[in-house]
Amino acid sequence: MQPDRHIVTAKVANIKQETTSTKTFDLIPYKGKIDFLPGQWIDLFVSLNGREQVAGYSITSTPCNTEFISLAVKNTGDDQVTQYIHQSMLEGDTVSFSTGGTCVYNPEQGNAILIAGGIGITPLVSIFRYIGEATNHRATIVHSVSSSEELLFTRELENICLLKPDQLSYAYTISSGSHHSTKGFSGRISAEMLDQLDVSSFNIAFVCGPDSFVDSLSAQLQKTGFNKGQIKSETWW
Known about the structure:
Elements: E1 8-17, E2 22-29, E3 41-48, E4 51-58, E5 69-74, H1 80-87, E6 94-100, E7 112-117, H2 121-134, E8 139-145, H3 154-163, E9 168-174, H4 191-196, E10 204-208, H5 211-223, E11 231-234
Parallel strand pairs: 7-8, 7-10, 8-9, 10-11
Antiparallel strand pairs: 1-2, 1-6, 2-5, 3-4, 3-6
């Protein structure tokens, strides 16, 4: 933890089991308002067995909402905070957090293509929501998952796009099997898929997921005309 970062004490609320492996929940500060940028993450501090434990998670809510933040946490790894979230966390629990991260969106960056692998969709949902709520720029979000059970926020993203069809769009692809999404995509994200999404019309690209996913998509985006400075990435693995 960096000593100069502001620590917020908050209450856990609205816990939901979104998929077999992912829970969503909100953190409501006991006092004050939340200030963060779209795309940022938090360090979450939890007292377990008399000791403070910490783990990092991306914010899924939009900075336009200053009353609480939302998180989506997948049950991966064996760190104690993630296990607490999935095994024993209850609504009303008290935790603390501080914000961080520099892979963020600002309106000056213009139209954005957001490409997520697996749980990497979490910070990109925050950016996508923000663009729709606070700007007139266009955004497309693309989610690649290994199975349909791992899709997150699908209904919400589709509904957001219905409200602003000229500004926002959403697609997903299942990398294994022959399942086709509403956009007709299946398999891993390919150059052909990026062409169909008209990625060259965007000013900036955000890519989030495993290292191999980020490396592959960054290379593909450069082949479509993006330069390295137009590609922002966040990796956690």
